[in-house]
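Dear colleagues,

As part of the handover before I leave the project, I'm documenting each prediction I ran so the next person doesn't have to rerun anything. This entry is a single chain, and its sequence is reproduced below.
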Amino acid sequence: MFDQDISTAISASIAAMSLWEVAAVILALAYLLLAMREKISCWYAAFVSTTIYLFLFWDVSLLMESALQVFYLLMAVYGWWQWRNHRNQQDDLKIHRWSGKTHSIVIGATLILTLLIGYLLDHNTSAALPYLDSFTTLGAIVTTYMVTRKVLENWLYWIVVDGASIYLYLDRELYLTAVLFMLYLVLVVIGYFQWLAIFRKEKQQPDSAPQTMAAAQ
């Protein structure tokens, strides 16, 4: 009975989708697939998709979600600028890792802000699941920045953020969006291993340079 209710809700959500929403979903998927391949065009897809979502969320009175889209727009421009200005330089903006200390600071700060903002929302608004909502929002902000800087672990962060988002959307009966994020989970795992292979390949290149120079001498 429960599965039938979910199936019915998903069908109803699909039927209610506007062409703009369909376009936004397709472009959001395009962004992720292009980012996995380090294609700078991923930021064009992100910008257009986010612009559509900004108006869609505003139209249904999801004001905080609309505000988050403004951040995504800025990150799309920043990410495009970063990737464009570094792609032809000797010291290219390459996939790299953060140190354990950096991860500890980022995760710690995110959790502290989650508790603070969640508490304020819980005691001053009628927000549903304020702590989880705060966590997914802050997590998305941090992880999006990591993508612009080509930090390898961004994909691992996305696994946590998207996983939490699935529960959030299921709780709010946004079943179609939850299904989309389930697909995201599969793609981010693939993305991680693709970037990991590139990271290992690029890491070996500097080691071969001195040997080549020595051989030439």
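The radius of gyration is 20 Å. The first helix runs from residue 2 to 16.

All the best with the project,
I.
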